[in-house]
Amino acid sequence: MLFRQLFDPQTSTYTYLIADTQTREAVLVDSVLEQVERDLKLIQELGLTLGYCLETHIHADHITGAGKLRELTGCLGIVPENAQVDCADRMIKNGEELTIGEIVVKAIATLGHTDSHNSYLVNQDRVLTGDSLLIRGCGRTDFQSGDAGTLYDHITKRLFTLPSPTLVYPGHDYRGFTVSTIKEEKQYNPRFLGQTRESFIELMNNLNLPDPQKIAEAVPANQLCGKVTVNI
Questions:
Q1: How far apart are CA 129 and CA 159, in angstroms?
Q2: Best CA proximity match to 32, nearest among 218, 178, 175, 174
């Protein structure tokens, strides 16, 4: 398996390129519009064919590159079940799998950051957690129908029940971390360590974070698969 972690410095977003080394088929998870040229160049250099653009959720902090990549490569765009998106080629729900050669990507619904959010378990040894579980943190729950109790339930009952060595690859990091494990996050993540469901909800409801800078443009653009509307 080919696995690459790519970074967008403006939004601290991680994009993941996963490919089967035999069939050369690839999937790009959580692409960023401003990085489409970089990603396409890498895909071409590695001799890959982009089959899918996969989203963990409808992003509020950046615009997806999926629409542009679909235009340029003919790949299919896939979003989580119940996402408010009309242009996706496929919705993927909890337990469903996407197969790329010998690679199996299994969707695990991890709601709470938004009301449609998936993590993706890749070949049983690593999980892409999007904005649900971050390294020593978690996604906020105060917009896009987020719900702190739901996030707590899905992380503790679904992600934290994965085997301890499972690698954790988040959708963002703001402190320079690139990868963690389920064991590490259970031991050291302050959002969950020593917290009850009730105390977690209280903590999340009192974060008082500012809105993402691009929320006004990112959410409507991502509901159109990354198509940016121009007002004349």
A1: 9
A2: 218
CB 129 within 8 A of CB 108: no
Look at residue 232 and tell me whether its pLDDT is greater than 60.
Answer: no
The three-class DSSP label of residue 206 is coil
SS3 46: coil
Position 6, amino acid: L
CA distance 18 to 27: 5
pTM of the model: 0.94
Whose CA is closest to 79, among 160, 71, 68, 67? 67
Measured CA angle at 128 (ends 75, 112), to 5 deg: 105
Q: What pLDDT, on a 0 to 100 scale, did the predictor assign at position 64?
A: 94
**R_g (Cα) of the chain, nearest Å:** 17
d(CA 226, CA 56): 14
As a whole number of angstroms, the distance between CA 114 and CA 131 comes to 9
Q: Rounded mean pLDDT of 140-157? A: 94
